[in-house]
Amino acid sequence: MTWASIAPAQDAPASAATVQAPPVPPPVPVEIPFASRDAAGVTAPSSPDAWGGPRHEGQEHLSDRVVSYRIQATLDPVRHRVDGREQLTWRNRSDRPVSAVFLHLYLNAFESEGSTFFTERRTLSPGHARGAGEVGKGEWGYIDLSSVEQDGATLKWRHVHPDGGPQTDHTVVRVDLAQPVAPGASVTLGMTFQSQLPRVIERTGYVGDFHLVAQWFPKIGVLELPGERGATEPRWNVHEFHFNSEFYADFGDYDVQITLPKDYVVAAVGEQQGAPVVEGGQATWRFTQGDVHDFAWMAARDFLTRETTWQGPGSPPVAVKVVYPREYEAVAGPILKASTDSLTYFSRTLGPYPYRTVTAVVPPFHGGEAGGMEYPTFYTVDNALRVVPGTLAQILIDFTTIHEFGHGYFYGLLASNEFEEPMLDEGLNEFWDDRMLSERRQGVHMTTPFLRFFGIDPEFGAFVFERMTASLAAAADPLGQNSWNRLSNAEYGTVYSRTATAMHDLEQRLGSEVMGKAFHAYYERWKFRHPSIADFRQSLVEASGRQDIVDEVFSRYVHGVAYVDDRVSDITSTEVLPLAGLSIRDGKRVELSSDDNDEAIEKQRNAWHRAHPDAAEGTGPFPWRTTVTVWRDGEAVPQVLKVTFADGATETVNWNDGRRWARFDFTHGAKAVSAELDPERRIYLDTNKLNDSRTVEADHSASTRWSSDIAAVLQGFYAWMGTL
């Protein structure tokens, strides 16, 4: 491969009569700092022209292509090694010369226990989680950068630690350039590298002859400019590979050739260019894709493909493929349907899907660590030997597929910074996935065929189930925290469910139509532009006109760790009866003894019941006074208190102030039966919905039902865990 070079600009020669001005020295490159090692949720909106301004029809490309990759890769499937040659062309968008660039070498996270990834894994005690797989002898992974050239000159590089990680971490390198890259100019680097795949762990690797080749090539970091994601000066956003972190990169175009034994099946990001070229026992596959920010691929023997074509308004025809091991043929159809259904829903609600391919890969047995991961136009899903409708297996297959496809929008097209603001991808995607399930009226069945045989089939709405898993009362970190400064692996995991629950709670206050408009506007404005949390917040404010509500939610939950727990702490309901004692009648004190009073009350009751033989218990000739006490353990939210009476009537009152407790009195012609906060179930952030209501008489049916359902949920969950 011949590496391209940059021709320096030349000035026209001066005339002989012109007095030559002293030469202007070229600008001296100034070191560009790293983004803060503690960078997290951005609070200042990006400038309108950030990342080249909004994208619109008529522009040459979908994105402002900053980088271009031309890669030739050869896979040795026995040694599980990729030998690569890479031509990387990068454009300097800043107003200053750049004398050094920074590259991610993500695979080095798996070269030893001294990496930032493994160091954090030990600290965060992940337990049973993706990335928790053990690495055996000969199963480590790494990437060796063999050479880097610029315009024929050999360049030097060294490992750096932007986040202050251990010196034994080698996931970021600094490359010093032979010639600085002028503002607006481009540089082309030629590289050779060797990538040793680990046994499958955390998004990449091999198991048997299956290879998921991801984060496998030297990848340039992002140079952010003032006005972009809160930056006030140019900065390199190039974090180490953290345990819970995913990725962030510039948009560009990829042209990748993959050579490997001819009996292997290959699937990859983007469009395949013609049939593989076979020479001897080797075949070379070529894939290209523009306007994406990553490239991954898989190779395996004896995999099958099921495919269809999807068409939708504003989108090109999309070739949808499922690539799967022969033994998992049962999931191919459901995954294909979930993928096409997702194309329809996301295109209609956010914006037309712009690419021509969607590829879902089913990992093999023992390849679970490769499942449930997303790349542009390409994602891995779950596997199962059979899928019975209305069971846990079906919802796992459907939801995993919907979720990984959804990343194609929130991670792929919007391309938020997954290092620093994971809620913008994982959390918002989870919310939109739940919205899709709700529209389909697809519940979460926490059961198996065996449990259903015994009549155990608890079903929950998507948002109800999300709320149950959200750990709302014990949040240690704000939703807007970065991916690595977390109390634990479990705390990071709640980014999914807590964000989805917070957004659904906000949707109850703003309205579903307003929320839909806000997300659509957010996508249209920020697609291909790397938005921040502040940019998302601005879209919500503009669409709703309710800055007060949006600011409250972001202050409490996105940038804080507030919680809500309102409860009915007491309810009493007593008859208002005539009272014994002295009273003034015609100017004189008249005594009514207790015995006479009781006799009069009894006569009045008997007469009333004779006139109302079918009256409900708790009704009669006398009114009832009901007192309800409500208590607030967390943040104040607008509440509705509903009291139900024995005659079927109800009364409601608003509790909209910040008092710690409040007492409400009601006088009605019947005894109260119950009192309930949030009767329409609109406050999803309430940590404990079981204490939202109370009956006058003890009623254990609700707690019995919940206990039964929760037991069934746990049994179904552990049955699923046993299949991993």
From TrEMBL:
InterPro entries in the cross-refs: Peptidase_M1_dom (IPR014782), Peptidase_M4/M1_CTD_sf (IPR027268)
Molecular function GO terms recorded: metallopeptidase activity; zinc ion binding
Biased composition (Low complexity): 1-21
CDD domains reported for this sequence: M1_APN_like
Superkingdom as given in the UniProt entry: Bacteria
Spans annotated as Disordered: 1-62
Gene3D superfamilies on file: Neutral Protease Domain 2 (1.10.390.10)
Pfam families with a match to the protein in the record: Peptidase_M1
Domain Peptidase M1 membrane alanine aminopeptidase: 343-557
Protein name per Swiss-Prot or TrEMBL: M1 family metallopeptidase
